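Q: For a teaching session next week I want to show students how multiple molecules come together into a single three-dimensional assembly. I've collected the sequence lines for a complex. Could you give me the predicted structure tokens for the whole thing so I can convert them for display?
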Amino acid sequence: MAARDHTRKLDFRHGRVELHHGGGGKAMAQLIEELFLPAFDNPWLRPLEDQARLQLAGGRMAMACDSHVVSPLFFPGGDIGSLSVHGTVNDVAMSGAQPLYLAAGFILEEGFPLAELRRIVESMARAAREAGVAVVTGDTKVVETGKADGVFITTTGVGMIPAGVEVGAAPRPGDKVLVSGPLGDHGVAILSVREGLSFETTIESDSAPLHELVAAMVAVVPTLRCLHDPTRGGLAATLNEITRRHGVGILLDETAIPIREPVRAACEFLGLDPLYSANEGKLVAICEAGQAGRLLAAMQGHPLGRQAAIVGEVVADSHGFVEMRTVFGGSRVVDWLSGEQLPRIC
Amino acid sequence: MKYIDEFRDGNLAREIAAAIHREVQPGRRYNLMEFCGGHTHAISRHGIEDLLPASVRLIHGPGCPVCVLPVGRLQMAIDLALGDDVILCSYGDMLRVPAHKEDSLLKARSRGADVRMIYSVDDALALARRHPERPVVFFAIGFETTTPPTAVAILQAAREGLKNFSVFCNHVLTPAAMLSILESAVLQCGAVQLDGFVGPAHVSTVIGSRPYEFVASDYHHPVVIAGFEPLDVMQSILMLIRQLNAGRAEVENEFTRAVSRDGNLKAQRLSADVLTQRDSFEWRGLGALPFSALEIRDEFADFDAERRFAMEPRAIADHKACECADVLRGLKHPRDCKVFATACTPDNPLGSCMVSSEGACAAHYLYGRFREARRETAGAD
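A: Of course. Below is the structure for the complete assembly, covering every listed component.
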């Protein structure tokens, strides 16, 4: 590390973000050297250049970007730091790729406690380590008090798609729809701590990196028709995007859709539908009917897919409806969410 | 889930459905109005119509509080939110209802109005405590179910001396709306057939079953009070069919686990302490109905936003193409409205019935419209 003068160390107990921490001067360098660099430390970040220089093997790269504005910043089962890693890792992984590198952009609000910033950055670093990705470059800006809400984090990720893996083709009637586990946890976890809406629950966000589960899946079915993470808008939005894009319908079986009891209860109580509640550690896959059994077994063999289930199938329908046979024995549409169920969920 | 799954049992539903199929008389039609939006929602969400014989027709009634509020009252709330540094607190469904020139509380918020979505009037009280320097107004809507909490909030504010809290009161009364439906000219001249009512659930927990007795005694229509779970609705339909087959017209109570004849006397007393009947109130679709709504008593005038901010009444016609008024009176099914699912959708609603999930149009759009599409496709084939 370059020689430093005798500036006083950052006060991570009582200190706060000040405008000059994003000013490009000595204060910013100090924040990087005392916080970001030790947390994320890796050979690509260490030179502190304006960019990271990466050696990539030949093949196809997947790249995704995700901004995180979740409120509150800390919630049961995670925080904006871990979420900003998982969100982008999952977006990259939904191509079948193995995520490798992340870039992180921080927008900090003047006055934000440095202690909380450190908590977030360390959580982010831990999540990245656990996911096996490196945060190789970044950026920090500070805006005046009141112009942001604590911290916003944008992450961009890249990964490599293994040879032979080909995710994403038009689903055909008869294809099966699978989910990797109980739905709606993240949305309800956020809801439970949202100001003015607090209720007691044991539900934690399902925020988790899904690329290893995906790797296990593409190992048995390298030509998955669709792979998506049902984040905002939940399962309903994800399936409606698929049916609209491909001009097919989907028929769900309500009895097969895994939803935890407390999530059902909270949604029932608040008049919400868990199918619209966000997930941050679940995926939806569509595959040929003949491969569904193998795929399900592979998913259930991974810790993040233990409660995976086949929840429906693709049907011919020029209207693109997602329809559901209800537990009750009738049927209904599972439509797009209109309006906002809850803003700033991720 | 305890207390929920028992009332959504598919096997029991099939048994009741079989009983309904057995008991409907050939050649006879059964036109039943479910008064409440909660029933409308349950019917659509659980696909109840799929389980009924074609001769049983469900007519969606005016019991969706968001739907029956006339545009003028909503515009008054928007005007209030845009001025005077007010924090306006509203239930979520109200935020997207289109007002004058398709304005809405949500659009007012994007122009700088401080509009907060709340789940309970308690949240409004909490905001008032947190912002003593700013007027906090609760936009109160709803039938008798939501009325007692509003009354309690006003009493609480009075006790605490929360001088910045007030209520824009739009609470309406169910029996008056039922009377209006029964008295409507179209029903009288036979243009619309109505044979019986699936009676309100939560409203009845407060007011009891007694207030509907006039429907049976004076108008000879059976009423079966039903809970909001799908089995409740199925069972009440069976009970109505049995009454009609036997030529009976009585008020029966399927929702015995929550409703008594006299209702919740304490809640009634609390409401009566704070609120009193208005001489007349405008309903969307039903027009001005006498003694059909509540206003804040003079003793609590300080907490009455209408008086406190000298809110000017606004009379605003519905959108020209909107047929909510006919839908709310049971004259039209949502699919019969010219703009249903074309110009009017939940994302761009022209009328209130397309906003709340309890609204007949939104419920049908969100859960049931595939049936028409299927029918059309089948017809085209």
